[in-house]
């Protein structure tokens, strides 16, 4: 009863934490994906605050932001559906281990105003962010610790499709919003907002801001305000807005336009104009894309023709503006504005905004600027001159449907086809993959590698790696002969079996250099690999020789791991079934009782070192065939109880997918068995 209650508690911890993390990561990844430039600016703020901006190439903040938002969204979706449980929970835990102390530092020293974890959709203070991250860190630790108890909504066979589509969707969304504009605008400059109203402060609660202008004359830089702005002999360098006295902070508090020609603040004049005004927003004119400059110039000509205002707003110095004019032939007037405000107004450099009486009617990215085919009349007579109708609810609904409808199709196939087929198999064959009596096995073949000292060290390391775990499979290591007597007593026999890589086809005698099955058994080893493709190819082992080896191994209490498999020419001739059936003759002479003691291992020799790849489907197909000929020879019960391992380039990255096949019962591992991390990663495929 106590164990049952503990299990329930662990299950609740895992799944409660899983859904908390899923909600947070999905929301965080989504709001960053719809505003990739906004997240880029936040990363740039971080790099600047920590003095690391020069460490990375210019493309890093944008590309890194898109990758991070995609990873967050992938983690959230994976945790929600219960797919990729080990990967998703591990990534979530690593992110929270990194972010929690980072946000504590932000809260204590305030190098950036907010962490930007939820973009502009939900701005948290640094202390609020730290508190949120503590909760998520605890949830991530619990979910990772009990990840095996996270229940699935998608079967193992279909989870790869969900994962691929999730990454495809979030990357596509990010690049679409980068090329156009964010499909959801969480900023105070969204379409339909009135800028003047966004700047309104209730009576008695004003914050006092001041615009600071950095100007230069005769090599001397000096700061000025609007009150003491100097004459035109001074050259503009930069501008910024500073808080002098904090009060109520309106959504828009740093919108200030200074005419570059006159030095006058024209903010109120622009915002109260009852006519149309085009604002070309280029926060840094020297970095602006000039590929569509002809369209921009046409918009300006159109504005002049119909009596509309047109201003280019930038934070760049005058020399950069002059270079832009020379390069593009720009004749429109330029105004100075705060750099951060410009980045917030339009997520494009340049971008275009249309306002009337201070209300934002429309916005366009550089890639979506209206052309002469649209501007066929006055704005008063065109849909373009009316406020663009936008509904966040409808937009979220459309994006949601684009993501969910394909997933519902996947879920439908999963429920109606895959799981029904598995249930049917379970009904027909109660010894199928889910409740089979045969063992799952991961066996390592060290081949001719490792000195005695290196082999002992490797065995000890594996033993320590499995010391506190109970693998869901039998683990075997097959070593060179010289290691057997030393390695066998070192490892925990309850968790790791030891075997040889070969034995002689003679019991004893004048056979210099050979090692008999009796000698192998005397070291304490319990297994022996026989019929390996390398032994067949390099040492000419025949069906008759292998038949003798198998019998001697069984007579000395060893469990043979008997290998079969075709080469490339045989696979290309579609003779694989014929080949493996012929190779099985070495063991088909055994009695049913003796045959039930052996392990089979299929090696697709044609896919090892040839550049070709054996797919999980091909592995399942040949394994099913092998089991069918065993059933024909010894009956279905023995066939169902015979473990058949896969021996073709099995790695941690593909083990889970291979082992998910109903007739693949584990792997005979070569190179990956020489590294404990890789070997354990394959063992863990049965634990995930």
Structure, described:
- The protein is α/β, with parallel strands linked by helices and 688 residues long.
- It contains 25 helices and 17 strands.
- An 8-stranded parallel beta sheet has the order 16-15-14-13-12-11-10-17. The protein has a 6-stranded mixed beta sheet with strand order 4-7-6-5-8-9, sandwiched between helices.
- A hairpin with a 2-residue loop joins strand 1 (208-217) and strand 2 (220-224).
- The radius of gyration is 35 Å and the shape is elongated.
- It starts with a helix and ends in a 5-residue tail after the last helix.
- Residues 422-435 have low confidence and may be disordered.
Low-confidence stretches: 422-435
Largest sheet: 8 strands, parallel
- Strand ordering within the main sheet: 16-15-14-13-12-11-10-17
> How would you classify the helix and strand content by structural class?
alpha/beta
Percent range for β-strand residues:
5-15%
Outline type: elongated
Q: Which whole number gives the mean pLDDT?
A: 88
Instruction: Please report the distance between the alpha carbons of the first and last residues.
Output: 26 Å
- Report the count of strand segments: 17
> What Rg do the Cα atoms give?
35 Å
Percent of residues in helices comes to: 40-55%
Topology record:
Elements: H1 2-33, H2 36-49, H3 60-81, H4 85-109, H5 126-145, H6 156-179, H7 195-198, E1 208-217, E2 220-224, E3 235-245, E4 258-259, H8 267-271, E5 276-281, H9 293-306, E6 309-314, H10 318-328, E7 334-336, H11 339-345, E8 351-356, E9 359-365, H12 392-428, E10 441-445, H13 452-465, E11 474-479, H14 481-487, E12 496-500, H15 517-522, E13 527-530, H16 533-539, H17 543-555, E14 559-564, H18 568-572, H19 576-583, H20 585-588, H21 592-595, E15 599-602, H22 616-634, H23 636-641, E16 644-646, H24 652-659, E17 666-669, H25 676-683
Parallel strand pairs: 5-6, 6-7, 10-11, 10-17, 11-12, 12-13, 13-14, 14-15, 15-16
Antiparallel strand pairs: 1-2, 1-3, 4-7, 5-8, 8-9
């Amino acid at each position: 009863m106590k164990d049952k209650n503990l299990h329930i508690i662990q299950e609740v911890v895992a799944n409660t934490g899983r859904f908390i993390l899923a909600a947070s990561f999905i929301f965080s990844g989504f709001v960053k994906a719809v505003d990739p430039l906004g997240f880029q600016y936040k990363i740039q703020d971080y790099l600047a605050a920590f003095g690391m901006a020069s460490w990375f190439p210019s493309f890093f903040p944008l590309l890194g932001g898109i990758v991070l938002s995609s990873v967050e969204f992938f983690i959230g979706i994976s945790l929600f559906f219960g797919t990729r449980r080990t990967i998703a929970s591990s990534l979530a835990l690593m992110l929270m281990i990194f972010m929690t102390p980072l946000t504590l530092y932000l809260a204590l020293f305030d190098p950036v105003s907010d962490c930007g974890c939820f973009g502009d959709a939900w701005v948290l203070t640094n202390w609020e962010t730290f508190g949120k991250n503590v909760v998520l860190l605890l949830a991530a630790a619990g979910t990772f610790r009990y990840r095996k108890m996270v229940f699935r909504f998608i079967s193992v066979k279909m989870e790869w499709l969900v994962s691929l589509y999730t990454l495809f969707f979030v990357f596509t969304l990010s690049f679409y919003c980068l090329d156009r504009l964010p499909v959801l605008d969480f900023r105070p400059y969204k379409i339909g907002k009135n800028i003047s109203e966004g700047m309104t402060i209730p009576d008695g609660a004003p914050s006092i801001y001041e615009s600071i202008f950095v100007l230069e004359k005769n090599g001397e830089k000096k700061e000025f305000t609007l009150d003491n702005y100097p004459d035109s002999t001074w050259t503009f360098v930069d501008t910024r807005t500073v808080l002098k006295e904090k009060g109520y902070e309106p959504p828009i508090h740093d919108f200030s336009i200074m005419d570059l020609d006159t030095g006058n603040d024209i903010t109120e004049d622009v915002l109260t104009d009852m006519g149309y005004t085009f604002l070309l927003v280029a926060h840094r004119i020297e970095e602006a894309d000039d590929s569509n400059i002809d369209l921009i110039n046409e918009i300006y000509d159109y504005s002049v023709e119909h009596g509309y205002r047109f201003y280019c707003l930038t934070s760049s110095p005058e020399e950069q503006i002059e270079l832009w004019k020379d390069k593009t032939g720009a004749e429109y007037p330029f105004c100075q504005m705060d750099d951060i405000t410009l980045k917030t107004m339009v997520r494009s450099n340049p971008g275009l905004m249309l306002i009337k009486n201070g209300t934002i009617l429309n916005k366009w990215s550089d890639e979506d600027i209206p052309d002469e085919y649209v501007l066929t009349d006055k704005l008063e007579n065109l849909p373009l001159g009316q406020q663009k109708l936008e509904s966040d609810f409808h937009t979220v609904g459309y994006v949601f449907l684009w993501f969910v409808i394909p997933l519902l199709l996947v879920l439908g196939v999963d429920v109606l086809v895959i799981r029904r087929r598995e249930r049917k198999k379970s009904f027909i064959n109660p010894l199928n993959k889910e409740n089979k009596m045969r063992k799952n096995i991961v066996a390592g073949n060290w081949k001719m590698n490792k000195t005695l000292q290196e082999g002992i060290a490797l065995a000890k390391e594996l033993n320590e790696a499995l010391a506190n775990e109970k693998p869901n499979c039998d683990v075997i290591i097959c070593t060179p002969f010289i290691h057997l007597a030393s390695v066998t007593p070192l490892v925990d026999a309850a968790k790791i079996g030891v075997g040889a890589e070969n034995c002689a086809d003679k019991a004893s005698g004048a056979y210099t250099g050979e090692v008999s099955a009796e000698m192998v058994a005397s070291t304490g080893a319990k297994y022996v690999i026989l019929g390996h493709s390398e032994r067949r190819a390099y040492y000419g082992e025949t069906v008759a020789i292998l038949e003798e080896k198998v019998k001697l191994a069984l007579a000395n209490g060893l469990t043979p791991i008997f290998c079969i498999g075709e080469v490339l020419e045989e696979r290309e001739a579609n003779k694989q079934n014929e080949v493996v059936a012929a190779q099985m003759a070495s063991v088909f002479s055994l009695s049913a009782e003796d045959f039930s003691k052996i392990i089979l291992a299929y090696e697709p020799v044609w896919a090892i070192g040839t550049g070709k790849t054996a797919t999980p489907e091909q592995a399942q197909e040949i394994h099913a065939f092998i089991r069918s000929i065993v059933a024909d020879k010894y009956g279905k019960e023995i066939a169902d109880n015979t473990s058949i391992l896969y021996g073709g380039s099995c790695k941690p990255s593909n083990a889970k997918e291979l082992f998910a096949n109903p007739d693949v019962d584990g792997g005979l591992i070569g190179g990956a068995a020489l590294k404990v991390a890789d070997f354990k990663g394959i063992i863990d495929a049965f634990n995930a």
